[in-house]
């Protein structure tokens, strides 16, 4: 039962409707991620296993091999676990917002900021890679036409230019709506000072989110989420690290160390310890530097695909798309778009470490 609003603090207006709207958006997306988690963890591996056991897979260049199918299954499990964690977080936060729990606002603001930043970056990446994607699609249409005797597109079907235009409109529109507009709405719904006053009024008991300032809590939550996802990386046979391919047991030791470090940063940030801020800065710079160095060597990524059981034809097909996203212009733009705001936020939030919780 919530507290009546008849004695609401003077000079403020209750924002229960905004909290309800924010909660509904988060719950709907939480349900969506939950369905994706079930799809990737249960349905897709089951269907793939049934298809592989029912009949031998077709052999030949460019066709999936048992090793590549096994690697794909592991990636599905990895995605399913991440989607499951996101689903739980979104459902809990949305429910807390609808039931006027004071801990829901800091979580909603954190989710909205990360969501909005990811959506804006995805939108920019789609625009930057559109020219290369258009070229690749035209080449695929030409190959299909040559294989079909040069007949071109069937009657009534759009050509490569029209098809690409339709695809880009759908991609950009969906990214803008679901990756930019909706997180911006959630951010706006929770931003007003009266939203915090409403939650403090309806849920006056101090909660765990009051232990540290909101910016520091965001760092703790980000580190905790990364720590939870780190163990799932053991399902990858190999991965690049500072331009070198690493596999078991080195990769497992690195993943274990990453989990410990990230968990320590999460707990230290929650306690507002200055060492946690320094640790977060080192982690961001280290992972960013590793990504930049590893992205320069395309042969390294060929090794990654080879370790996943891809044959030469499949590797070449995958490399065409990867070369688009790892081109110098796109790669450095992604570095600036992701690392720039992250580092700026870290340096701005330094002032809150070593302090007790305060209004934010």
Question: Can you describe this structure?
Answer:
The chain has two domains: 15-51 and 63-143 and 162-208, no CATH class; 212-360, no CATH class. With 360 residues, it is mainly α. Strands 1-2 form a two-stranded antiparallel sheet. It has helices spanning 16-54, 66-98, 104-147, 160-191, 193-202, 214-229, 250-270, 274-295, 298-307, 312-325, 328-349; strands at 239-241, 244-246. The radius of gyration is 24 Å and the shape is globular. The protein has eleven helices and two strands. A hairpin with a 2-residue loop joins strand 1 and strand 2.
Quaternary form: single chain
Approximate strand percentage: under 5%
How large, in whole angstroms, is the Cα Rg?
24 Å
The overall number of domains is 2
Structural class: mainly alpha
Number of strands: 2
What fraction, in percent, of the residue positions are helical? over 70%
Instruction: Label the overall shape.
Output: globular
Tally of alpha and pi helices: 11
**What is the helix/strand order?**
HHHHHHEEHHHHH
Which residues form runs of ≥5 with pLDDT under 50?
none
Average pLDDT confidence is 80
Biggest sheet statistics: 2 strands, antiparallel
Kindly report the spatial arrangement of strands forming the biggest sheet.
1-2
Whole-Å distance between the termini? 26 Å
Q: What is the strand and helix layout of this fold?
A:
Blueprint: H1 16-54, H2 66-98, H3 104-147, H4 160-191, H5 193-202, H6 214-229, E1 239-241, E2 244-246, H7 250-270, H8 274-295, H9 298-307, H10 312-325, H11 328-349
Antiparallel strand pairs: 1-2
Helix pairs in contact: 1-2, 1-4, 2-3, 3-4, 3-10, 3-11, 6-7, 7-8, 8-11, 9-10
């Amino acid at each position: 039962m919530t507290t009546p609003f008849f004695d609401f603090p003077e000079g403020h207006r209750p924002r229960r409707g905004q909290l309800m709207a924010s909660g509904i958006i988060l719950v709907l997306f939480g349900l969506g991620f939950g369905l994706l988690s079930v799809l990737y963890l249960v349905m897709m591996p089951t269907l793939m296993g049934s298809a592989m056991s029912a009949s031998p897979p077709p052999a030949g260049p460019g066709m999936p091999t048992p090793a590549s199918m096994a690697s794909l299954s592991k990636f599905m499990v990895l995605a399913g676990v991440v989607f499951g964690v996101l689903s739980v977080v979104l459902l809990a936060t949305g429910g807390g917002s609808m039931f006027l729990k004071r801990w829901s606002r800091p979580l909603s603001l954190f989710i909205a900021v990360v969501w909005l930043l990811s959506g804006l970056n995805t939108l920019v990446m789609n625009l930057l890679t559109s020219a290369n994607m258009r070229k690749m699609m035209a080449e695929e249409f030409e190959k299909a036409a040559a294989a079909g005797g040069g007949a071109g597109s069937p009657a009534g079907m759009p050509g490569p230019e029209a098809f690409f235009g339709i695809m880009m409109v759908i991609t950009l529109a969906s990214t803008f709506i679901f990756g930019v507009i909706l997180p911006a709405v959630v951010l706006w719904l929770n931003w007003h000072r009266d939203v915090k006053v409403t939650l403090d009024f309806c849920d006056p008991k101090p909660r765990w989110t009051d232990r540290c300032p909101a910016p520091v809590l965001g760092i703790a939550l980000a580190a905790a989420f990364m720590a939870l996802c780190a163990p799932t990386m053991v399902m990858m046979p190999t991965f690049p690290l500072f331009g070198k391919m690493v596999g078991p047991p080195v990769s497992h030791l690195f993943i274990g160390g990453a989990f410990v470090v990230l968990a320590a940063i999460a707990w230290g940030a929650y306690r507002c310890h200055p060492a946690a801020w320094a640790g977060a800065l080192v982690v961001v710079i280290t992972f960013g530097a590793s990504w930049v160095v590893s992205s320069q060597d395309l042969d390294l990524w060929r090794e990654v695909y080879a370790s996943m059981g891809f044959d030469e034809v499949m590797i070449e097909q995958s490399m065409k798309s990867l070369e688009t996203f790892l081109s110098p212009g796109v790669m450095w733009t992604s570095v600036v778009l992701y690392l720039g705001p992250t580092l700026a936020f870290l340096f701005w939030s330094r002032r809150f470490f070593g302090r007790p919780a305060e209004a934010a």
